[in-house]
Design brief:
The chain is α/β, with parallel strands linked by helices. The chain has 14 helices and 19 strands.
Length: 452
């Protein structure tokens, strides 16, 4: 049986350790090449990456796999994930690949695959890739004369910048706005400041000196403290924080107070609804989104549909049911009028458009509801997840009995790293703290017994 490679957001792991080795990347390239190579004209694959040191290793191995299957490779270098999705469609490529572990530290890396329509590949295609990775493929290698070629797309940055700018309402500019943008030393370190400057903003950049090992380190969406402090120190109107591959965004108002993805979705949804352009009668979010967001939207006559965690599941529901606004509390915002995946820069521009049109500060237009108290804890583990242990099951059941209708508890394994994620939401913060502490204690006791 084929090994399980894909999680909720592609393949991910520690660089140079299975499955993120050159050998596996080579076989992933060969496998995807086998699936996406069709008869007739030569097919093209677009490969982008973030700024991790290991990107060179994975990029070269993937390219070798694709070339060996007869596909031409177009390198675009460090670029946001949504840029790779957009360029895949723009270049009419058969496949797009983003090499990134998103918000994870530099030691990790990952592979995300996009089909010719710019959407992440389906579960069925993922299973096919996994099957071929563990099979013999030498017979599928093309003859020497049919090997693919590789070239670099020199104007990739400019193409993406123009695409993002085209989503900003015509006639609007950012003149007079002071904008802090924290690129997390990641994929948007060039395009984000340049795009904002071209729209007229006074740009104060942060996290634009990647060295291969500082991506997401004390910066970006994983640590917004520096961004928030800089907003206050510089008297900026807004702070924008992006993660390593720029498909996620968190925003700070002029007081340096953070707005999460729930507040951003509410802001954009209300704006689009007022303009008569919100499709589906509401938005699509995940089980992690705050219940107060749902109540707020319901009060406006809008609905909020929930999916499991992962922007791909949000996107799939949006496509199947006609929604054009969706996302995650973590800052993945999918605006399907423009994009096929989360795009931090486009989401930020939508919020800026609300500010400019209203001529009011972000604290007035971007904070749409008071969230219910919510506690989130992450616990790392090695080997087997502790969630099936009786002690953990009992602790979760006791928490649910205590909360009843006054809140909810969500506990799950991360789809991108060996971490148990616990979320508790309710009316009483002290009760939530006690509940989470009991569950954390049960998990740690389970992990101790496994090591013993």
């Amino acid at each position: 049986m084929a090994a399980k490679l894909f999680g909720t957001d592609g393949i991910r792991g520690t660089a140079n350790v299975e499955p993120m080795t050159a050998e596996t990347a080579l076989r992933v390239g060969m496998s995807a090449g086998k699936i996406f190579t069709r008869g007739g004209s030569r097919q093209t694959v677009v490969i982008g990456k973030d700024t991790r040191l290991s990107g060179y290793l994975i990029e070269s191995a993937l390219a070798a796999g694709f070339i060996g299957m007869g596909m031409d490779v177009v390198f675009v270098g460090p670029m946001p994930t949504p840029a790779v999705a957009m360029l895949t469609r723009s270049l009419r490529a058969e496949l797009g690949v983003m090499i990134s572990a998103s918000h994870n530290p530099y030691q990790d890396n990952g592979i995300k695959l996009f089909g010719p329509d710019g959407y992440k590949i389906s579960d069925e295609i993922e299973k096919k890739v996994e099957c071929f990775v563990s099979s013999e493929m030498d017979a599928d290698l093309v003859d020497s004369v049919h090997l693919g070629r590789a070239k670099r797309l020199e104007d990739a940055e400019g193409r993406y910048i123009e695409f993002v700018k085209s989503t900003f309402p015509k006639g609007l500019r950012l003149d007079g706005l002071k904008v802090v943008v924290d690129c997390g030393n990641g994929a948007a370190y060039k395009v984000a400041p340049k795009m904002l400057w071209e729209l007229g903003a006074d740009v104060i950049p942060l996290g634009i000196e990647p060295d291969g090992v500082n991506i997401n380190k004390l910066c970006g969406t994983t640590d917004t403290r520096a961004m928030c402090e800089l907003v206050c120190r510089e008297g900026a109107n807004i702070g924008i924080a992006l993660d390593g591959d720029a498909d996620r965004v968190l925003i700070a108002d002029e007081a340096g107070l953070l707005l999460d993805g729930d507040q951003l979705m509410a802001t954009i949804a209300e704006s689009w609804n007022s303009a008569g352009r919100l499709n589906g009668g509401g938005i699509v979010a995940t089980v992690m989104s705050n219940g107060a967001l749902e109540n707020h939207l319901n009060g406006l006559g809008l609905q909020m549909m929930r999916t499991q965690v992962g922007d791909r599941y949000v996107t799939e529901y949006m496509r199947a049911n006609g929604f054009n606004v969706g996302g995650e509390q973590s800052g993945h915002i999918v605006l399907s009028d423009y994009t096929t995946t989360g795009d931090g820069l486009i989401a930020a521009l939508e919020v800026l458009a609300v500010m400019v049109n209203a001529e009011r500060p972000l604290s007035h237009v971007g904070r749409r509801f008071d969230p219910f108290p919510q506690i989130v804890e992450n616990i790392q583990f090695d080997g087997v997840s502790p969630l099936e242990d009786g002690r953990v099951v009992d602790a979760v059941r006791a928490a649910e009995d205590l909360l009843k209708e006054s809140g909810r508890i969500l506990i799950r394994n991360s789809g991108t790293e060996p971490v148990v994620r616990i979320m508790a939401e309710g009316e009483d913060l002290d009760v939530l703290k006690d509940i989470v502490n009991e569950i954390v204690f049960a998990i740690k006791q389970t992990l101790k017994s496994v090591k013993a």
